[in-house]
Fold this sequence. Notes:
Blueprint: E1 7-13, H1 21-32, E2 36-42, H2 48-54, E3 62-65, H3 70-76, E4 79-80, H4 82-87, E5 92-95, E6 101-104, H5 107-118, E7 128-132, H6 136-147, E8 153-157, H7 160-170, E9 174-178, H8 182-186, E10 189-194, E11 218-221, H9 230-237, E12 241-243, H10 245-261, H11 271-283
Parallel strand pairs: 1-2, 1-3, 4-6, 7-8, 7-10, 8-9, 10-11, 11-12
Antiparallel strand pairs: 3-5, 5-6
Helix pairs in contact: 1-11, 5-6, 5-10
The structure holds 2'-monophosphoadenosine-5'-diphosphate.
Amino acid sequence: xxxxxxxxxxxxxxxxxxxxxxxxxxxxxxxxxxxxxxxxxxxxxxxxxxxxxxxxxxxxxxxxxxxxxxxxxxxxxxxxxxxxxxxxxxxxxxxxxxxxxxxxxxxxxxxxxxxxxxxxxxxxxxxxxxxxxxxxxxxxxxxxxxxxxxxxxxxxxxxxxxxxxxxxxxxxxxxxxxxxxxxxxxxxxxxxxxxxxxxxxxxxxxxxxxxxxxxxxxxxxxxxxxxxxxxxxxxxxxxxxxxxxxxxxxxxxxxxxxxxxxxxxxxxxxxxxxxxxxxxxxxx
Length: 284
Ligand code: ATR
């Protein structure tokens, strides 16, 4: 029931109509019996900053921010977490009662949580990791891996200069390679993470062979529409274990929920099943 005291949080993006975040957060809120609601804010045009400033003071408790506003979310904040700054992006804003906007990045936490759940034996600190792509998603992954102790991260990208920019920004443990030399990064990787948009429904897929990966290497794809990407199918055909983008989405929502509502999500809600049902509905 919506009351006069209902707390509001939500997700801002363009487009945002197919976001799974309202499904996850509202299922948790209902199970926890919290008087709050989580809605989608479709921001057309160029009004992101005006919208964010209008929420100062806590009209809305907090926002998830998704494409294309994550870098602008970091810029609009008065204070940012270390991980948000190093990622160059924020996917969570909270609106403090004193008027400040705080920026966080929980995407990298979501990535690590997804590995914990679907590849629990994998150890971030055990060896090098190859990240494919050099956009915002890739940079966030690199920042999170370094934070988790990964000794070397390869950033492999079609446009080498963008990979070099991430290496420049995040330090000497990060090395850039062009896509054509991906095999060099894959040969001793403990994990390979697709952070490119290739593989999204309607895109062509990523022209990278996983043949060079060692047997124990874990293959992760951030894309979850479709959930079963050609990249993950290639990994399974080689006998590699896999981690999917939906688990990362759920993994980032957990600390976001806690930032908005002050407690971790209640246990026992199968939000993955709810999200899978929504994805299946979108296809139908
Ligand atoms: P985001 O911020 O979500 O990561 P982005 O900045 O648009 O999005 O980055 C998309 C990434 O996918 C880039 O690394 C892009 O490579 P380029 O930097 O060379 O453009 C990569 N990408 C997209 N389509 C690709 C394709 N068909 N093959 C290889 N890489 C692709």
